[in-house]
Model the fold of this input.
Amino acid sequence: MSTVVLFEHPLNEKMRTWLRVEFLIDQLHASVPLTNTVSALTFFRLIGELLDIFERGDMRTELLKELERQQQKLRAWADVPGVDMTVVEALREKLKRQSAQLMSAPRMGQQLREDRLIGLVRQRLSIPGGCCSFDLPGLHIWLHLPQESRDVQVNAWLETLVPLHSSLATVLDLIRQSGAFRHQTSLNGFYQDNAEGADLLRLQLQLEDSLYPQVSGHKSRYAIRFMPFDSERGEVPARLNFQLACC
Done:
């Protein structure tokens, strides 16, 4: 049975930020429980990267706009014959709840930014080896607390991300579902098309093809060049069949 590899490429800065935040939050949840120094430093490094992203722009405003846009799209389904409006209304109510939750939440990342332990570790992460026990004795003793105590604190930190995480997960899920995969063929490793109004490209390739896509594009047009994973001996077929969804 062949293995399918999914690649995603953002077509605007908003989507690029959202995918990066999703990537970091998924890693945060995968890194717990924090049972040793390695898992703890991984967790704090991810928190630091998230806070860096939050400080670069107003992600909450963009998410609120997208939640409203998705609600407007759902309203349009009311005029389509045969649509199960109970499902549509349930999803609209979910979007409304998430929008209200996001609106009422503190400034994104504020509680994490104000936490003393996170702040101490974050200051040292850019220094090679800067989180040794003699550099961060506070972290060293924290790692010797009972596991249950650390779990409570970590869960409290993660809880502050719930309004963001739930809204982002719903928005990305709706965007991904908005585009169906279709068979496409590249010629000599190259494919291009229009992407008017799209936010995201999703490509499915077979692992045995040993190829990966390099995508360049923006909101109206994109181009894909397929590259061999083995740059020295790999080859790109004259005609390559793949699956593409423009969302």
